Write a sequence for this structure.
């Protein structure tokens, strides 16, 4: 045990030192591009209310070819961040077809501890205002490099969506934010793994630069104003109904 | 009484005692971070974790004096972590504080020396991880020569010692137990595995401490612990398999059997399937076929015929052609056998598929039909037909597909299919012709056999290149298809006249028909992005289809062919098309406008036999055309989508319409050619509107299609009475002025009570106008049809699913030349079904369909009730067996009915099919049967 702790400590310092040269030139604002890969068959195989035979068949027929890649962006400075979809096509060769851009942004002000989300959910636009309640994180002792940063490992359980969450956050970017709802750690979250690979977000480009209007949210957006509790109710209701019908709950909702 | 009296005292005593001993409920944890020289350490990350599960409670950064404070936190056991880039991280276990402020005073962090730093950098990059007390090594990063054993791998792992005998130890302790993927293997000696298992199979090596075997057995933790090691296998060494077998026997000599077995690992899938039955399952079902083909069931980008559609049709493609899927059409009785094997390899860069399938079907049916043909305003004749058909088909198919992604911008797809098939057909057909008064005039009896064997090859290759510039791409495809067939037809017809001077006429002929069709084709596509929203595409298509056919007719038992019925021909169709599409795509709007110039060239030469001089009458036609194309797709807010499209297509006349080939298979029907035919030019406009509600899952769609065909090629019919052959219909293809049609569809699926009650409604109308010349009189017949269907699905609970519905089709045909024959005919069906899990693992399933076919004018009114029911029970450990007792067509009324009205005739037919039988089946499923009713309808 003592030896293990030693190994851990040594590893831990390693990460700090590796990050050190970055920290010295650190700008506390910029944009991180995440490659978001969703595997439809793996998403389905996490739905325990659908028969195992059916899920196995989907994995067998689709497991290797149901990946769908998109880019998402996280703009941040020392006190705020905004997460949104990128217009850039992540799968080359797919250019020339455009889906309607849905309302989606997640704004976080971690100094005032407030959130402001705009999202298209089940056919409607919602504007969510509330205080930030970050997930309950468990800090694990794993280390890994993501986009040139040595990251620490933390895990969480999304009790609403019944997902296991594994994230990697960079201590040399001491900004308590990250993509989507994965925030509240002592460093920037650079990688997220939902349900063992069903959805993975990995930072693939970190652009530290002064931001101009990236953090702004359009002033006039139509949408129903709700709070986090009301949002949770909407998601819970949909999940319950889809479960009763044995159909995926994430049709019409972000995973 | 006494207790009641004493209790408050005890409570007060206990409460008072605990109050005295209790720590404050909340506390403030503070301290100062300093280095060994007592200098403050600012901007270090300090994390407060729950000691029991490492949950993050709070974190902060130390201030410029090195101070940190977590104020007013719950007073409990914590783990405090502090990190800074220039110091060794520290972890402190904090016990609940007896005071309101838990001042840790000075927390000292040691600076990192230059030497240590180098060690640390190496360690940070070392491929090992800590999870609790488990050390995990990433085996793939430790390079060992190929063929090395696990033992060789372990020797390279830091912290693991392997002695000369192969004994493993770590952290000074012997590794006593070895697991592979968490499972123990035979024997207690770990060496038997480490010396034999190949290192390349291992992805991770985990070392941890576990309770001794003794304490595991007794459940008493004697404190003695052992080191254990787990070898995690790479995914591709993980294996799986599944399979099913069903055997069934029934009354009326009915039987069925089928089975499939699949084995797979991360990269490969292998499957075998087999079936045999006489219950009209002419192939496998879609579900079994999907499992058989595995991850090769659906392939995108497989269409190399580029054109107006984006990327030549960017859709998933199920190789449905020639697939061994059940395609029974409801007529007759069949006996079927088939089986095959499939192999898939997929490592993301390379995908390979190879499959073989054999299937055969023996089909026998007896069909009786009635047809009334309108000759002119006053005259009609009727035909009563009896067909006895015996048909045997078999085929061997070999399919391969190869896909290689060379890098992110270059990809090749190559496919080849080979099919050998044979068909033996025997038809005994008796036709009785009667005049309007239903007086029999003549009877024609045919007894024809037809044997055909053919080889078919289809192959294609598609290569795609993506340029560095986003959106710029190039694709080229090529294909070769061939079909060689060898057929023998044996015609035997006897024409009996009831009133004529020549009472009967007999034709007996043998016909040999060899065909050789070859096609080569190639296409190219180039896409240039003009901006983020605008794209310009160019495409080119070329194809050449050469068809050589030698057909020789011989009189019965004669070697000398009949010149008038024999022919040899060579026909070549060449096609060239050059087109361009301008595409706009932005935020849910996708529109395209395209134009193409094309040329169709038909060349045909005819002779009486191979080697004979060509006839003077040949075909040499060139049809140049210019075709536009338009498509618009708009996604509204709220999940509504609009699609509008226009296409223009040119269809060249068939060679056989230009120069017909005489055929005596049915002496009462002849086709005459027309060398003046020009291509049909059809314009089609379609529009659709679709809506989906993601919250309720309600969906509604509406689609309409309007088509105008200029110069449609229509078979004009002249029915004459010939004193030597009776009623003779001569059909001549001709370009008429214009035909039109409109078709509309509506479908919807609306949940009335979420998850319990759903209603489907669908319907449609069709209107068709096509001019026909019947006995040289122009008839502008119009037909209209209405379809309406509805279904209610009721799921009161997880154990009961009930559905009821109807479906109806009403058709109206109006003739201009003899309006009294206008037709109204009507088909409808009522249906209901139930699935009921009445006891755990026992199910009752039943469905009832009632079909009615009506045509009042002819007094045709037939109803077919069909009722099926079954009970099944899942048995055995892990639900691996299923027994099912099924009753098919309990009322014994099943028959296949068809009715139909067109330009100049109405027809109704009845065909025998499988009627009542009972069947008992037993199935085995390696993975176990599902012990509940499946509600969803996808996959």
């Amino acid at each position: 045990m003592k030896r293990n702790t030693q190994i851990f400590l040594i590893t831990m310092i390693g990460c700090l030192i590796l990050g050190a040269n970055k920290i010295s030139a650190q700008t506390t604002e910029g944009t991180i591009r995440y490659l978001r890969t969703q595997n439809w068959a793996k998403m389905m195989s996490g739905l325990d209310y659908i028969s195992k035979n059916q899920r196995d068949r989907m994995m067998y027929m689709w497991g290797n070819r149901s990946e769908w890649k998109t880019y998402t962006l996280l703009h941040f400075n020392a006190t705020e961040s905004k997460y949104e979809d990128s217009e850039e096509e992540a799968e080359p060769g797919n250019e020339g077809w455009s889906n309607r851009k849905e309302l989606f942004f997640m704004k976080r002000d971690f100094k005032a501890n407030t959130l402001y989300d705009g999202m298209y959910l089940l056919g409607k636009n919602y504007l969510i205002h509330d205080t930030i309640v970050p997930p309950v994180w468990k800090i694990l002792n794993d280390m890994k490099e993501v986009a040139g940063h040595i990251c620490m490992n933390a895990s969480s359980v999304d009790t609403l969506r019944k997902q296991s969450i594994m994230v990697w956050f960079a201590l040399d970017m001491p900004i308590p934010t990250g993509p989507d709802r994965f925030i509240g750690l002592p460093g920037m979250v650079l990688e997220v793994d939902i349900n063992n690979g069903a959805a993975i977000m990995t930072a693939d480009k970190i652009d530290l630069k002064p931001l101009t209007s990236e953090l702004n949210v359009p002033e006039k957006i139509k949408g129903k104003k709700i709070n986090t509790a009301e949002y949770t109710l909407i998601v819970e209701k949909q999940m319950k109904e889809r479960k009763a019908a044995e159909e995926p709950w994430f049709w019409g909702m972000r995973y | 009484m006494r207790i009641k009296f004493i209790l408050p005292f005890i409570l007060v005593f206990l409460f008072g005692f605990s109050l005295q001993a209790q720590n404050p409920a909340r506390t403030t944890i503070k301290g100062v971070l300093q280095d060994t020289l007592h200098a403050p350490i600012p901007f270090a990350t300090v994390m407060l974790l729950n000691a029991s599960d490492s949950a993050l409670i709070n974190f902060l950064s130390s201030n410029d004096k090195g101070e940190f404070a977590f104020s007013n936190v719950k007073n409990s056991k914590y783990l405090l972590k502090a990190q800074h880039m220039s110091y060794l991280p520290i972890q402190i276990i904090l016990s609940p504080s007896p005071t309101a402020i838990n001042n840790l005073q000075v927390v000292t962090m040691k600076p990192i020396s230059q030497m240590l730093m180098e060690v640390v950098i190496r360690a940070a990059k070392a491929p090992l991880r800590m999870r609790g007390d488990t050390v995990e090594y990433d085996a793939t990063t430790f390079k060992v020569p190929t063929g090395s054993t696990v033992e060789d791998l372990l020797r390279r792992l830091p912290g693991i010692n392997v002695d000369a005998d192969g004994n493993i130890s770590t952290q000074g302790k012997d590794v006593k137990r070895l697991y592979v993927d968490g499972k123990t293997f035979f024997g207690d000696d770990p060496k038997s595995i480490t010396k034999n298992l190949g290192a390349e199979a291992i992805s991770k090596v985990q070392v941890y401490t576990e309770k001794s075997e003794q304490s595991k057995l007794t459940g008493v933790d004697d404190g003695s612990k052992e080191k254990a090691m787990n070898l995690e296998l790479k995914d591709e060494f993980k294996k799986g398999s599944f399979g099913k077998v069903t055997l069934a026997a029934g009354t009326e000599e009915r039987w069925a059997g089928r089975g499939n077995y699949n084995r797979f690992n991360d990269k490969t899938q292998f499957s075998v399937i087999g079936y045999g039955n006489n219950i009209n399952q002419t192939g496998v079902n879609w579900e079994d076929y999907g499992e058989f083909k595995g991850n090769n069931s659906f392939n995108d980008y497989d269409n190399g015929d580029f054109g107006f559609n984006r990327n030549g049709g960017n859709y998933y493609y199920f190789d449905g052609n020639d697939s061994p899927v059940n395609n029974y059409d409801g007529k007759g009785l069949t006996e079927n056998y088939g089986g095959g094997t499939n192999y898939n390899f997929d490592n993301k860069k390379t995908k390979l598929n190879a499959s073989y399938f054999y299937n055969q079907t023996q089909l026998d049916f007896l069909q009786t039909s009635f047809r009334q043909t309108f000759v002119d305003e006053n005259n009609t004749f009727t035909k009563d037909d009896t067909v006895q058909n015996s048909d045997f088909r078999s085929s061997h198919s070999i399919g391969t597909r190869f896909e290689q992604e060379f890098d992110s911008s270059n990809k090749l797809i190559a496919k080849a299919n080979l099919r050998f098939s044979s068909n033996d057909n025997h038809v005994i057909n008796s036709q009785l012709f009667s005049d309007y008064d239903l007086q029999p005039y003549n009877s024609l009896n045919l007894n024809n056999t037809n044997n055909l064997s053919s080889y078919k090859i289809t192959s294609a290759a598609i290569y795609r290149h993506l340029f560095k510039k986003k959106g710029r791409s190039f694709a080229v495809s090529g294909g070769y298809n061939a079909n060689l067939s060898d057929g023998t037809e044996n015609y035997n017809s006897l024409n009996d006249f009831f009133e004529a001077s020549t009472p009967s006429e007999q034709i007996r002929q043998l016909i040999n028909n060899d065909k050789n069709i070859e096609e080569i084709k190639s296409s190219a596509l180039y896409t240039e992005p003009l901006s983020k929203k605008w794209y310009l595409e160019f495409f080119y298509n070329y194809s050449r289809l050469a068809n050589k056919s030698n057909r020789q007719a011989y009189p019965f038992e004669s070697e000398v062919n009949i010149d008038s019925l024999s022919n040899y021909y060579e026909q070549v169709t060449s096609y060239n098309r050059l087109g361009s599409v301008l595409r706009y795509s932005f935020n849910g709007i996708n529109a395209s406008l395209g134009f193409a110039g094309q040329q169709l060239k038909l060349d045909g030469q005819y002779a009486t036999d191979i080697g004979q001089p060509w006839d003077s009458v040949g075909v040499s036609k060139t049809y140049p055309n210019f075709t536009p194309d338009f498509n618009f797709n708009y996604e509204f807010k709220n999940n509504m989508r609009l699609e509008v499209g226009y296409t223009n297509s040119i269809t060249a006349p068939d060679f056989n319409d230009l120069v017909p080939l005489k055929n005596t298979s049915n002496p009462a029907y002849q086709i005459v050619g027309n060398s003046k035919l020009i291509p049909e030019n059809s314009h089609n406009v379609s529009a659709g509107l679709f809506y989906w509600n993601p919250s309720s899952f309600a969906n509604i769609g509406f689609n309409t299609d309007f088509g105008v065909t200029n110069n449609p090629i229509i078979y004009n019919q002249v029915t004459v009475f010939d004193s030597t052959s009776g009623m003779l219909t001569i059909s001549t293809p001709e370009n008429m002025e214009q035909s039109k049609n409109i078709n509309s569809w509506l479908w919807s699926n609306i949940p009335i009570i979420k998850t319990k009650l759903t209603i489907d409604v669908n319907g449609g109308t069709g209107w068709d106008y096509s001019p026909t010349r019947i006995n040289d009189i122009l008839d502008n017949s119009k037909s209209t049809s209405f379809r309406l269907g509805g279904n209610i699905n009721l799921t009161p609970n997880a154990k009961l699913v009930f559905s009821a519905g109807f479906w109806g089709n009403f058709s109206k045909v109006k003739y201009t030349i003899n309006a009294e024959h206008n037709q109204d005919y009507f088909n409808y069906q009522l249906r209901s079904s139930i699935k009921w899990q009445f006891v755990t693992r026992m199910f009752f399933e039943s469905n009832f369909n009632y079909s009615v076919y009506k045509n009042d004018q002819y007094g045709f009114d037939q109803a077919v009730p069909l009722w099926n029911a079954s009970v099944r029970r899942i048995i055995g450990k892990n639900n691996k067996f299923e027994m099912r007792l099924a009753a098919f067509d309990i009322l014994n009324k099943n028959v296949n009915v068809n009715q139909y009205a067109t330009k100049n005739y109405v027809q109704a037919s009845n065909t025998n099919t499988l009627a009542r039988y009972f069947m008992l089946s037993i199935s085995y499923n390696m993975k176990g049967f599902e012990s509940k009713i499946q509600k969803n309808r996808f996959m």
Notes: Residues 156 and 164 of chain A are 6 Å apart (CA to CA). Residues 2-244 of chain A form one domain. The mean pLDDT of chain A is 86.
